[in-house]
Amino acid sequence: MVPDYIPQNYYDGWGNDKFNAWIFEIIKKVYGSENFVIGPSRGSDGGIDAEYVKAGTVPFIIQIKWREISRNSPSKLRSEIFSKFKAEVERRSSNSGSIKYLFVTNVSLTHQYHEKFKKIIREYPALNIEYWEFEKENSFLRQYEELYVKFCPYFTRAEIEKLKEDKDKIISELKDHYQEQLSESEFLEIQRKVKDLFINQTLQREYYYAFIYFLEPVYMDGRSSSDRKILRKLLDITEQTELDFIGQLVQEGSISRTESLLSVNNRGRAKTSLNGFIDGLQIPLEKVVDMFEKWV
User: Could you tell me the residue range of the domain that residue 177 belongs to?
Assistant: First the structure.
C-alpha cells in the first residue's frame, strides 16, 4: 500500500523519463487514452511532452517538469517552475485563441506559489489551464493503486525483514573492513550536506525516524546515549527537539515505546526515508556507519 508519509524528494530517484512515463499513465486514466500522443524526444519537443490530437477540438497540450529536489534549493525550484509555467501560458496565449494546457511538476508548492499559479489562471480565461504538483501526484498514487504497484513496487513484511538482514550483513562487513577514523572535519562536512537536505522540520523529523530504524535497537536510557548524541549532532537538533520528535512520532503511531525501548512501526516508510537520505548525501554508506562506530 502507499505509505502514509511521502517525503518531498520521493520522486528524485525516478529521473525524468520514469516520472514522465508515470504521468502519462495517470493522464490516460484521467482523460482517456484515445487521441493521446507522446511528444518527440527532449530538445525537439518545443517544451511540450504530450498532447491530445483530434481534428475539430480545442488543442490539449501537456508539459511536464521533473526536478531533483534533494540537490536544489526548494525556493529556487519553485521560482524556476513558476517562471516556466508563466512563460508558457503567455506564449500560448499570444499564439492561440483557445487551448487546454496541463502543467505537471514534482516540485512541492507553498501556499504563496499556489496563489501565484491561480492568479495566472484567472488572468487568462481564454485558456483552460490546469496544474498538478507534488501533493496532487501523491493523491494519484493513492487513487490508482495498480499504477503504484507498477511504478513503486512495495515489499512484503518477509521481504522487508530479508532486506534488513542483508543490510545488517553489509554493515557488519563494513565494520570489519573499514578502519579509517572519521575526523571532526569529515563529520562537519557530512553535517553540512545533511542540512542541505532539510526542506522543513517535518522532513528533519522523518530523517530522525529513519535513523531510529537504522540504529535499532534504540533505548531512551543510557544504552543508546552515544548513538542518540551523535544523531542529534548530525541532524543539528537539541535534546528537547529530539524528545519532541519522539513524542510526536509516538502520538501518531509511527513509533512504539516499550519502557525505554523505541521501535518503528512502519519499516517500509523508514527504509524509503533512509534510502532518500543516503542518496541525497551522495557519500559512501560506510561513512554513515562510521559516524556511529568511531566518531567521538
Answer: 157-293
